[in-house]
Design goal:
Elements lengths: L10 E5 L4 H12 L3 E6 L2 H13 L3 E6 L5 H15 L4 E4 L21 H29 L2 E6 L12 H25 L3 E8 L8 H4 L8 H9 L12 H8 L10 E4 L9
C-alpha cells in the first residue's frame, strides 16, 4: 500500500507532447521516475523537450507522429515496444481548434464552416480514438495499462463560440466512458480508461482569445474569471497531480470517469 503512487519505470506516451500542457506533464512524470515518450508533429521541438528532461536526469524519447494516421501511430507503438518492451499509459493530449469552427459574438450559426467543423472533430475526437486503438493492443497483451483522455469544460456545458471544439470534447467524454466499460468487459480489470477536463489554462491555442498582448484579460478572459470561483486561470503544473493519480495504482479501481481540474468552474453558477 505504501507504493500506490509509485510510477517509477512506467512507460508513458503523450500525444501532443510538445504543447504547453503535454510538456509540463511529461517533465513532471519524468521527474517522478517514468519514462516519457513525447509524440508530436514538430521534431525540433520534441528534441528540445527530450533534452530538457534528460538534462535533469529524467528518461524521455521523441517520436514523430500524426494522430490521424493509423499506420503512423501503429509504427509509433511498435517502436516503443521494440525499445522499451512495454507501454503502461497513454495520454491523449493532442488537439486544437480552427477559427472556422467557432462562432464569434457578431456571427450566427450560419457562419460556421462545416469543413473546419469536421477538421476539429477529426483532430480532437478521431485523434483520440486512433491512438487509443493502437496503444490498447500491447496493453491487452500485457493485461494492464491505462489511457487518460483530455476532455474540456466545453464538454460539460455548451460554451459560447467554440462550437466544433465543444462537440469534439463532449464526444471524448462519451468515448471515455464507452471505452472504459468495453475494455473492462472484454479484456479484464487491468485496463482502465479515464479523462481529465481542464478548466482554463493559458496555452498557445487560446492565448490570444483570453489575453491581450500586454497580458491583461480580454472580455472573454474576464468572463472566464467571473465563472471560476478560484478567481484565476490554472497553471499547467496543476494538472500533474491528477494525471499522476490516474496512471498510478492509487486509481486501480477507477475507470470511466472525467475529472474536472478547473478551480470550481463547472461547479459554479450565478
Amino acid at each position: 500500500m505504501n507504493n500506490l503512487f509509485n510510477i517509477t519505470d512506467k512507460v508513458v506516451a503523450i500525444t501532443g507532447g510538445c504543447g504547453i500542457l503535454g510538456t509540463t506533464i511529461g517533465k513532471y512524470l519524468a521527474e517522478n521516475g517514468a519514462t516519457v515518450i513525447m509524440l508530436d508533429r514538430v521534431p525540433e521541438e520534441g528534441i528540445k523537450r527530450v533534452k530538457a528532461i534528460e538534462d535533469t536526469g529524467g528518461k524521455a524519447d521523441f517520436l514523430l507522429t500524426d494522430v490521424l494516421n493509423t499506420d503512423v501511430v501503429e509504427k509509433n507503438v511498435d517502436d516503443i515496444i521494440a525499445k522499451y518492451g512495454q507501454v503502461d499509459a497513454l495520454l491523449n493530449a493532442a488537439g486544437g481548434n480552427l477559427k472556422g469552427a467557432t462562432i464569434a459574438p457578431d456571427q450566427t450559426i450560419f457562419d460556421l464552416n462545416p469543413e473546419d467543423f469536421q477538421k476539429v472533430l477529426n483532430l480532437n475526437l478521431t485523434g483520440t480514438v486512433i491512438p487509443s486503438q493502437a496503444f490498447l493492443k500491447p496493453m491487452v497483451k500485457q493485461k494492464k495499462g491505462c489511457i487518460v483522455n483530455f476532455s474540456s469544460m466545453a464538454a460539460f456545458r455548451p460554451l459560447t463560440r467554440v462550437c466544433g471544439y465543444a462537440a469534439a470534447k463532449a464526444g471524448i467524454s462519451n468515448f471515455t466512458a464507452y471505452l472504459a466499460a468495453e475494455c473492462a468487459k472484454k479484456f479484464g480489470d487491468g485496463i482502465r480508461v479515464n479523462a481529465i477536463a481542464p478548466g482554463f489554462f493559458i496555452t498557445n491555442q487560446n492565448r490570444a482569445l483570453l489575453t491581450n498582448p500586454d497580458g491583461t484579460l480580454t472580455p472573454r478572459g474576464q468572463d472566464v474569471i467571473r465563472q471560476t470561483p478560484f478567481g484565476r486561470m490554472g497553471e499547467p503544473e496543476e494538472l500533474c497531480g491528477t494525471i499522476h493519480y490516474l496512471i498510478s495504482d492509487a486509481a486501480k479501481f477507477v475507470s470511466g470517469i472525467v475529472v474536472p481540474v478547473d478551480g470550481g468552474f463547472n461547479a459554479f453558477s450565478l
